[in-house]
Each structure stands twice: as structure tokens, then as C-alpha cells.
Amino acid sequence: MRFNTRTPLDQDIIMKATQHVANLTKPLGSLGALEEIYVRLAGITGQLHPDIGQKAVVIMCGDHGVAAEGVSAYPQAVTGLMIHNFVKGKAAVNVLARQHGAEVRVVDVGSLLDEVPPPVLNRQVRKGTANFTEGPAMSVNEAKQATEAGMAVVRELKEQGVRLLAVGEMGIGNTTPGTAVAAALTGLDVDSLTGRGTGVSNEGFHKKQQAIRQALAIHRPDPSRPLELLARIGGLEIAGMAGCYLGAAKEGLPVVMDGLISTAAALLAVKMEPAVREVLFASHLSVEPAHAALLRELGLEPLITAGMRLGEASGAVLSFPLFDSAVGLAREMATFADLGLPNPASIT
Ligand SMILES: Cc1cc2ncn([C@H]3O[C@H](COP(=O)(O)O)[C@@H](O)[C@H]3O)c2cc1C
Ligand SMILES: O=C(O)c1cccnc1
Predict the structure, then answer these.
(1) Do 305 and 285 meet the contact criterion of CB atoms below 8 Å apart?
(2) Would you say the CB of residue 142 lies under 6 angstroms from ligand 2?
(3) Is 70 exposed, middle or buried (0-12, 13-18, 19+ CB in 10 A)?
(4) Which of the listed residues 18, 31, 159, 337 has the most CB atoms within 10 Å of its CB?
């Protein structure tokens, strides 16, 4: 299956933005990653002064059959409880979204909840995945449906005026499929990639490594067939997030990833459609070891290292002020020409 996206970057604006940032009254390159953010935002939006005023965060939710293997420190029911907590506005990501001016959109693509509380979008493809140590997590068709749900949500947000997006997830047990996907896509070994997620015990940690190894052995996932890989060892919210990134590339919308699971979904989306890479931004570096491996594979540097390991898009929303700063600096700083001077960098 191909998900059509347009080539997102406007090369003419990229050149103009690169020149503009080089002419600002500061040593060349001294604003580091903020300069790169600004130039790429300009390329994605096609605007020399990108409008990223209206922001949203999408939280994809789903449950995991592999939780039955005892791979998480928390019971599966916490996924549903947290969906209710998002509705009340009381989760970490809600607080951060209020602080940084972002709308929160929660999408249930496959929790175990029988009644999905409004305004959560009920896009349940099925109630949780199957245990992937025994068989595929879901069918290819189900993975496709969840992916398309993510694409549709992003299309709606873009139509409603959203100009910067964060993507995150909720799903107890999902650092296990997140790490399995990372292992399959990077080829790195399970020992070096597996972390403790919510803080699983030593016993749970060994079960987790065992579950991932077993899944890789049974399914032999092929990185050149990303949708099938997603169906076998992924998750419904992972598919939903992959759809968000595909949708963002299609809509020309900059999108900020969070930690391990959202970045695993992003690498899957890039494997499905390489143009997705152009609209992706890394926010923070998760404690989960597989996260750094995924970012390396994507060739992206995290902006914040704060020892976080939460998911929910908390790190992504936390990075929003850096995006506003990047755009504001480019818009408001004087150029050397404004001061009536040649750019000192161009005369030495
Ligand atoms: C109360 C609570 C809130 C959360 N918010 C995000 N996660 C995070 O932890 C889970 C993954 O870790 P593991 O694979 O170890 O289960 C995911 O739901 C992720 O979003 C949470 C976990 C809990 C317990
Ligand atoms: O890196 C993450 O996104 C993460 C880490 C631990 C638990 N949940 C998510």
C-alpha cells in the first residue's frame, strides 16, 4: 500500500530562510538548533515567517494483548483510566498543553473501554491487540484502518487551522511493541534496546525481553514491509500515530514526536513514505534506550534531555516554546543591514 504525500519542502523558501538567519545580528550559527527549526518550518509551511500559532496535540490510545505477559509495572486498566483523566484535563500532557497553548485531541483506536467518554474520538478498530508472542498483534487490514484514522484526524485539525502538531500515546504495555518495532527496524539487539518503561521489576524486565525476542523469532518482521511489520508486532495506537505523521506530510504540517513509542511509529511512517522525514521534529530524549537508536536512524537530534519517560506527548508539548522562540527570533531580530552594516561574516 502507498500513502500519497506531496513533497513537503519548499526549496526556494529554504534558501531565503537560510540567508535571512545568516544575516541576523549574531555570530553565524549561534542559535544552533533554533536556526534549523526555523529554516525547516519555513520550508514546510512555504512561509518566510511561518505561522505556527494554533497548536494541537493528538494522543492515540490503545491496549496491548502482550500486557498479559507481565511486561508493565501497571495493570492494563490504567489505559482506560487515563483516557478518563485526559477528559478531565488532569494528566501531565493536559497541564503542559494548557501552559503552552495547545488543544488536546484524544483518539481511542483500540482501548478495552466499552464506553468511550466524549469528547474522545471513538475510532476503535478492535478492543486491544492480540498477544504478539502467540500470533500477529492484528491483521494488516486493522493496521491500515488505524493508520487511516490517524491521517483523517490530522486532516481535520489542519482544516480547523492547526499549524503545529504534537503526537503521543497512551497504552499500558506499549514500550514492549515500541521496542520490538525499534529492534526490527534498526537491527540492533534486544538487550541493548530494552528499558523499564513505567518501571517494571527485574522479573518483568526479563519477561519483557523474552516477549520481544519471541515476537521477533515468530514473526520475522521485514523492515521493507512496514505495514505488515506494524500489524505483526506493533499496536493500534502505534498505527494511529504512524497515520498522524503520514497525514502531516500530506498536509504540509510540522509535527513533533515524543518518546520511544511515538518515534517508533514515526520511523514506520518514514519506511512507508520517505517524505514524512521532512516534516518530523524530535523533542526530548527519553530514558528508554531504544529511543536514541530510533532518533539516530531518523537522523534527528532531540532538543531537550530531561530524563523523562512518560509518553502522552508530554515532551513534545514541552518543546513547543522552543518552536515559538525559533520563529519569533527570525521575525523580530535586526539584520546587519538594518543597522546599516555589511554582514561581518561575509567580509572576513
Ligand atoms: C498512570 C500512567 C500514565 C501514563 N502516561 C503515559 N504512560 C506511558 O506508560 C505506558 C508504557 O509503559 P509500559 O510499557 O511499562 O506499560 C504507556 O501507556 C505510556 O504512554 C503512562 C503510564 C501510567 C502507569
Ligand atoms: O519514551 C517513552 O515514550 C515512554 C517511556 C516510558 C513509558 N512510556 C513511554
Answers:
(1) yes
(2) no
(3) middle
(4) 31
Tens-digit pLDDT profile for residues 77-108? 999 999 999 999 999 999 999 999 999 999 99
Q: Kindly report the pTM of this predicted structure.
A: 0.98
Indicate if ligand 1 lies below 6 Å from the C-beta of 133: no
Cell numbers of 45, please?
A: 509551511
In the reported structure, the alpha carbon of residue 213 is separated from the centroid of ligand 2 by a whole-number distance in angstroms of: 20
**Burial class of residue 115 (count of CB atoms within 10 Å of its CB; 0-12, 13-18, 19+):** exposed
Q: Which amino acid is at 245?
A: Y
Q: Which of 249, 259, 252 is nearest to 197 (CA)?
A: 259
Residue 2 confidence (pLDDT): 55
Report how far residue 20's alpha carbon sits from residue 332's, in angstroms, rounded to the nearest whole number: 12
**Residues with active-site annotation:** 312
Query: What pLDDT, on the 0 to 100 scale, is given for residue 30?
Result: 98
* Ligand 1 contact via 310 beta carbon (within 6 Å): yes
Residues 6+ apart with CB under 8 A from 16: 42, 48
243, 273 Cβ separation under 8 angstroms: no
Q: Which of 111, 170, 241, 309 to mutate to test the pocket of ligand 1 (most atoms within 8 A of CB)?
A: 170
* Grid cell listed for 315: 515532551
